[in-house]
Design goal:
This protein is 12% helix and 48% strand. By secondary structure, the protein is mostly beta strands. The chain has a 6-stranded antiparallel sheet with strand order 3-4-5-8-9-10, with no helix packed on it. The protein has a 4-stranded antiparallel sheet with strand order 7-6-12-11, with no helix packed on it. It has 1 helix and 12 strands, in the order αββββββββββββ. The chain has 2 domains: 34 residues; 150 residues, no CATH class.
């Protein structure tokens, strides 16, 4: 009998604790309480992958996608004229299962790191042999397979979270694009 009486008390305590936890996770937003959900959170970089099959070649990019979150990105969070992992945390990797050409340089099938050197007017895009590294801690230019300079494009709309896309281009070629904040850079690829 005494156990039956403790069940309603236990349920009351559990409901009270849940309501208290819910109130603790509510945040003030424009004068209204808003409960934060994982979909609303843009505070952390999230791991992402982009896959595409183009002209018989399978491409895969693995990266961590940071968000703008009101920060100054270019020349601020990401310095100009320094090698950047072009994502967050570990090196962004690019993998393909057949040989390709970038700027008329043959790049054997395999897995590589994709780095950039952002500039105010021009960017350097880099394919590097050392794909498994934290940020640019172990970056060495001697491991570069290809370096190419491109002019960044200005985006009309803000791309809040860094995003890669792999798409068809004319004549069985492919393009890898990275968009973030109001900037987009594109790496053109020739398929063999």
């Amino acid at each position: 009998m005494k156990y039956l009486l403790s069940i309603p008390i236990g349920l009351t305590l559990l409901i009270s604790a849940c309501q208290s936890q819910k109130e603790n996770t509510a945040h003030e937003h424009n004068g209204e309480a808003k409960t934060e959900t994982p979909a609303d959170t843009v505070t952390k970089s999230i791991p992402k992958e982009e896959h595409a099959q183009i002209g018989g070649v399978h491409f895969m990019m693995a990266y961590h996608a940071p968000a703008v979150r009101g920060r100054t990105i270019w020349g601020g969070l990401v310095p100009y004229d320094e090698v950047w992992v072009t994502g967050a945390h570990s090196a962004t990797s690019l993998e393909f299962d057949k040989d390709i050409k970038i700027n008329n340089v043959k790049v054997p099938a395999g897995k590589y790191a994709f780095f950039t050197i952002p500039g105010k007017e021009r960017w350097t895009l880099i394919i590097n042999k050392n794909w498994k590294q934290h940020l640019t801690d172990d970056y060495d230019a001697k491991d570069d397979v290809v370096r190419i300079e491109v002019t960044p494009e200005a985006l009309q709309e803000t791309q809040e979270r860094l995003k890669y896309s792999i798409s068809d281009a004319a004549d069985f070629n492919a393009a890898i694009s990275m968009s973030w904040e109001k900037v987009k850079v594109k790496l053109d690829i020739q398929l063999n």
